[in-house]
Every structure is written in C-alpha cells, then in structure tokens.
C-alpha cells in the first residue's frame, strides 16, 4: 500500500474540515484541507445540485406517513413489517413511517421499519408488508395534489382504505380529491438524505450525468489548488465513494467520472506541490446510513463479510492505481511494517456530553483532555497519527466571535 493513507468511515458534519498531521519521525507538519462535497455529494454543501429534480421532496430515503382522509387514521405495518397492513392508528410512529425507494419521478416503493416493502402481491388485493425485494407488484404510482395523494398500482387499481381498516388495491375508478377512501394525506416527516444515491436516482441517469459532470468540472479546479498552495496548505484530503472503482460505468444509479476527476486532482497536486490523502468516505453497503456514505434510505448494511471484502478491494484498487500512477504523490507515512495510520476525528458535537458545556468548558476540554491524549499517542512511538477531521463548531449557543477564535486556536495549537 505504499504510504497511501486511506481512512474509512468518517462522520462528517457542518463546516469545512481541516486536517493536520503531527510531526512523527521527522515529518514536517502537514496542513490540509478537505475537498468535501466534490466526488462524494453532500447536499448541505451545495443544495442547488438538487434543485432540478421533479418531486424533489420525494427522494430515496424520504420518510412518509400516510393518513386516510375519511377514516382519519394512519396506515400501519403491524410490528413494523412482515405481516398485514392496517389503517387504524390515530398517531403515527415508527410502524406508520415508510421510507421511499424512488423508481421514477412518480413511482415509488415503500419500505417499512423492518425492511420489508408494501406489496400488492396477495390473493384478495390486500396490501401487505411482506415483500423482501421490491419489484413491480411493490411499485406504486403516486399522484399528488397539494398534501393529498392517490396511490395506484402499475396495473391500474387504486389503493383504498376499507371501512374495516384494511388497505386494498381494488378501486378501479379515478378517485376525486374530495374525502373518499382512495384519497390519503401524505406527510413527509424526514427528507434529510441528499447524497450521490438521491441525486443520481432523483434525476435519472442522463440528467444526473450532466449535473455531476458540470459539478465535478467546476466545483474544485486547478485554481483552488493554486490558492491553497499559496496560502500555506500542503495537503488535500479527497473523499471518494466505493463506486470509483467501477468507473466509468459504476452500478446504477451511480454516475461514472469520479476517477477521472481524482486523476486530475493528482496532476494538480503535483503541479502545486500538494500531497493527497484519499478518504474512502462511502463504503459499500453504507457504513453509517448517512448521505455521505451514499445510503439509499438510511439503512446501514456495512459490515457484512461481503461488504468488508468489497471495501478491501476498493482500498486495494486505490492503492494500486495511485501507487502505480504517481508514486511521488503518495503520502510517505513512514510507519514501519504495520502500514497503519490512526485517523482521529475530534468534535465537541454529536454527543450529549458536550450539550450543557459553556464556551470555557469546551475550550478547557481541548487543553485538558485532547492535548494529553494526543501527546500520549505520539509518545507511544506507534503509528502516524493525524486529525482527519475537526471543526470550529460546538453546541454553545450565541457564542461571540472572540470565543469562537479561542476555541479554534485551542484546537489548532
Ligand atoms: C393481522 O395479522 C395478525 C397476525 O397474523 C392477525 O391476528 C390480525 O387479525 C390481522 N389483522 C387483520 C386486520 O387482518
Ligand atoms: C462556564 O461554566 C462554569 C462551571 O459552571 C462556570 O464557572 C463559568 O463561569 C462558566 N463560564 C461562562 C463563560 O459562562
Ligand atoms: C440566542 O440568540 C437568539 C437571538 O438573539 C435568542 O432568541 C436565543 O434565545 C439565544 N439563545 C441562548 C441560548 O441564549
């Protein structure tokens, strides 16, 4: 693996990340910038990427609840899935929440808490929550009118509630938008996944290819590398997704081209004397269910033996390709036989521990807890240690600029 640093499974958050590598074995200090939102899409970094998607509030992973306007009850998958479906809940919770799998702008599959899909594949037209793999009998055409929906099977019948609180798919006429048993209120309760899966599947291949080609061409350019190198930065960290190994034709819905962009980045890095850290940000199967791990619907299918071995293949691919392509650009970690680096991610966020701490306490935490920890790790004469992520953000409300600066200085010292 040469000295390529590949760090996997990181939790990204709000702001530009800076990394720094501490001097070990005579290495000089490395000051790096993360090039987030470029080859792995994170909607919060550039929300406009998603602007052109029809029904853009119904992307993969969007969580919806469905309420009958006549019965005023929510559709519920008993036990969270695996058996029948009723329309009998006054209050919607997890059994009444379905995650969308988008098939087209108007066609969707509905996934229950337990992972099963709603299906029309039953003898009497009942909708059940029993399908493991969604196909056409699990695909529903959703017609929207303000907050209301009609849900139709691909073969014609509309889904309706029955007076005895079941859900069937035998309504053969075009329902109106008044109060009738085939009209439902669609409540979108969470729409927070905006990653590569949502973008590519939301636009469909051709449009997604245009959008991503333009983004990859323009979001990070040689000028940025020039700017960084002029400003004392000597390393960039580049997040990539597992599908980069199958460029230019990765599995649907992913769009090829990220490998060519990475190759360009390496050539710019060479021109401007920057080092590169390649960060496998999205592992096969999704390591954390978040958008930057390219999860389809928030599920976490990593680790499994298969996904772990696929992950290792991705790391091998990157190490081999980059190593062969341009050994000078490899980060020379110099860590002896073990080929290990420790990538630390430090946040005073995401943990209730920090929630009640004021600015002084946050700053003292850095000096009293983190700094000694780093000193210990360095003193162990062990692997190279670097801070792959940190951020100048905290849970303190309404902090002054001065307090932010003190907090930033503490972390950078
Ligand atoms: C749903 O399934 C359960 C368990 O199989 C059964 O007891 C119940 O009667 C069913 N409900 C409806 C409305 O069919
Ligand atoms: C922060 O909390 C500590 C402990 O409660 C307190 O002594 C200190 O005055 C607080 N500082 C600020 C700036 O609020
Ligand atoms: C922060 O400031 C906003 C706006 O001035 C105010 O509404 C809010 O209560 C403040 N929050 C705290 C925790 O002081």
Protein architecture, described:
- The chain is an alpha+beta fold and 413 residues long.
- The model is unreliable at 1-27 and 324-338 (pLDDT under 50).
- The chain is elongated.
- It is built from eight helices and 19 strands.
- The longest helix is centred in the C-terminal third of the chain and has 21 residues, at 305-325.
- The protein has a seven-stranded mixed β-sheet, covered by helices on one side.
- It folds into two domains: 5-50 and 194-339, TIM Barrel; 63-190, Trefoil (Acidic Fibroblast Growth Factor, subunit A), CATH 2.80.10.
- The chain starts with 5 loop residues before the first strand and ends with a helix.
- α1 packs across α2 and α7 packs parallel to α8.
- The chain has helices at 196-203, 205-218, 222-230, 258-271, 305-325, 352-355, 359-379, 401-412; strands at 6-8, 18-21, 30-34, 63-68, 74-77, 85-89, 98-102, 107-111, 117-119, 128-131, 140-145, 148-153, 158-161, 167-171, 184-190, 235-241, 275-282, 341-348, 384-394.
- The structure holds 2-acetamido-2-deoxy-beta-D-glucopyranose (3 copies).
- Residues 358-361 line the site of one 2-acetamido-2-deoxy-beta-D-glucopyranose.
